[in-house]
Amino acid sequence: MNSVTSTEAEFAARGEGLHRSYRRGGSDVPVLRGVTVEFRPGTFTAVMGPSGSGKTTLLHCLAGMDRPDRGQVWWGPTAVHGLPERRLARLRRAHIGFVFQAFNLMPGMTAAQNVELPGRMAGRRPDRAAVRDALARVGLAGRERQRPAQLSGGQQQRVAIARALVTRPRVLFADEPTGALDRTTGTQILRLLRDGVDHDGGTCVMVTHDPAAAAYADRVLLLTDGRLVDELHHPTARQVAEALAHASGPIDGGDGTGGGAR
Ligand code: ADP
Ligand code: MG
Q1: Domain count of the fold of the chain
Q2: Is the minimum distance from the CB of 235 to ligand 1 under 6 angstroms?
Q3: Among residues 79, 78, 114, which one has the least CA distance to residue 99?
Q4: How far does residue 154's CA lie from ligand 1's centre (Å)?
Q5: What's the CA-to-centroid distance between 125 and ligand 1, angstroms?
Q6: What is the pLDDT of residues 36-61, one digit of tens each?
Q7: Which one, out of 28, 54, 189, 196, has a CA that is 20 to 30 A from the CA of 161?
Q8: Hey, whose CA ends up nearest to atom 7 of ligand 1?
């Protein structure tokens, strides 16, 4: 099991001093105010915080889908901040998986075609066996030819996870992956993410606002107003809920109302 050598990076991903602002009404509104965070290989981290606290922005910056104004992002030993767009996109396809709350599948494509898509975009020929294997790993063997509309929400999210995992990414980022699912289906998705870390050695970073979901993680990070304010290790759902209530007390400065989830 221990295949990690000393030449491999200590962290699957790392962000250092991340700042990000958005322009609104003629002024810069800070969303990330200096976030430093590290993810060890084979760990499952949950990111929590009030709506508008910068969770999605942080995930997008770490996943190379958005660029911080200041600060550094590393995937393993590779510095990705400041890379030109095409190199960043190529590295992202090789190293990063991303799962969205709203699944983001292509409606006109079958499950298998959706899973093949990242490889195609990288200019590779579809690896049928890898696609079948990825769908089987998420419990969708035999559903290869079905389209999203023929699948339940939970099944669609599993296709999205298969699509994110088929390239065997260094890190799987998931932004409220159970937010659109009922609790039973959501639990299946959380087990799948947990198994991917425990049995396949993956690294997972998940945004959630559900303390019960966060309790599946090894570590919970609390973000408030663009800053990390707390970190819990192997917490229970109740401990997460308490920390969250504490962290979302009065928010100093800024626009605490946020713009809702995106
Ligand atoms: P969270 O995921 O914690 O709810 P977000 O990272 O989505 O928070 O957003 C944090 C703040 O940044 C919100 O106030 C939101 O309106 C703002 N924001 C996010 N993305 C953009 C954008 N592309 N342009 C302008 N403002 C944005
Ligand atoms: Mg969000």
Answers
A1: 1
A2: no
A3: 114
A4: 26
A5: 37
A6: 999 999 999 999 999 999 999 999 99
A7: 54
A8: 56
pTM equals 0.90
56 lines ligand 1 (CB under 6 A): yes
Q: How much is the average pLDDT of 225-237?
A: 97
Q: Closest ligand to 100 CA?
A: 2
Across the strands, what pairs with 35? 18
Query: Closest Cα to atom 16, ligand 1: which residue?
Result: 259
- pLDDT at residue 202 greater than cutoff 60: yes
Residue 7 pLDDT grade (very low, low, confident, very high; cuts 50, 70, 90): very low
- Helix (H) / strand (E) containing 184: helix 183-198
Nearest one of 259, 107, 235, 73 to 247, comparing CA atoms:
235
- 201: tokens are 């050695």
DSSP lists the bridge partners of residue 81 as none
**Can you give the residue range of the structural domain that contains 250?**
2-260
Q: Which DSSP category does 84 fall into?
A: -
Compute the distance from residue 32 Cα to the ligand 1 centre, in Å: 10
CATH number of the structural domain spanning residue 164:
3.40.50.300
Backbone angles phi and psi of 226, in degrees to 5: 80, 10
CA distances from 211 to 4, 171, 238, 260 (A): 31, 22, 7, 19
